[in-house]
Design brief:
By secondary structure, this protein is α+β, with helices and mostly antiparallel strands. The protein has helices at about 1-35, 40-70, 75, 95-105, and strands at about 85, 90, 105-125, 125-140, 145-160, 165-180. The radius of gyration is 26 Å and the shape is globular.
């Protein structure tokens, strides 16, 4: 009898706990519904704008990586404002194109993978962001057997011009670089 009473007590306790969870869940659902009702159309529109702006800025960072890896310098420079500052005393797309061309001549294959991307919208036309990226880079040009892995952090400033988000500034911080240990072009094809 004692064993049966113990099992019965355990079952009742379990049932009570499940019931309490259900009651709390229902209360949470009511709270969510109640707090969502005052969310007027103006707020919904503003939220939609935040989502759309963030998505476009994320695409900007992704396109940067794709254009850089493809050495599409024309595609790369148009991701920046036309009056982009390059170094201390130069500006504009032509100066930026020359700077990218010089940098890419020092490396061979590159593979830049964008990861975490935090965006802070300042106002409707200005934002800042931090992008984490992992780069696999053939150091020393196309003939080099040396591949390195880079952990990169970009600190970005964005501006919306003519309805499109562009980079105003992109500061590159190399967190670390390490030898990859294998020359990927010498590996057998992956299937």
């Amino acid at each position: 009898a004692a064993a049966w009473q113990s099992k019965r007590a355990s079952s009742l306790l379990a049932a009570a706990q499940v019931n309490e969870i259900a009651v709390r869940s229902q209360a949470l659902i009511y709270w969510i519904r109640a707090s969502a009702e005052p969310f007027d159309l103006l707020q919904r529109s503003a939220w939609r704008n935040v989502v759309e702006h963030s998505a476009e800025i994320r695409q900007l960072a992704a396109r940067y990586s794709v254009c850089a890896d493809a050495r599409d310098l024309d595609g790369l420079v148009v991701l920046f404002v036309p009056d982009v500052r390059v170094g201390r005393d130069r500006s504009g797309h032509e100066a930026l194109r020359a700077d990218f061309d010089r940098s890419f001549r020092q490396v061979g294959i590159t593979f830049l993978n964008v990861g975490t991307h935090v965006i802070d919208l300042v106002d409707a036309d200005h934002a800042t962001g931090i992008v984490y990226a992992r780069g696999e880079i053939q150091d020393g040009g196309r003939e080099s057997a040396r591949f390195i892995v880079h952990a990169i952090q970009y600190h970005d400033t964005y501006e919306r011009r003519d309805g499109h988000w562009l980079f105003v500034r992109r500061k590159h911080f190399l967190v670390y670089g390490a030898e990859l240990g294998v020359n990927p072009p010498t590996l057998a094809p992956a299937n």
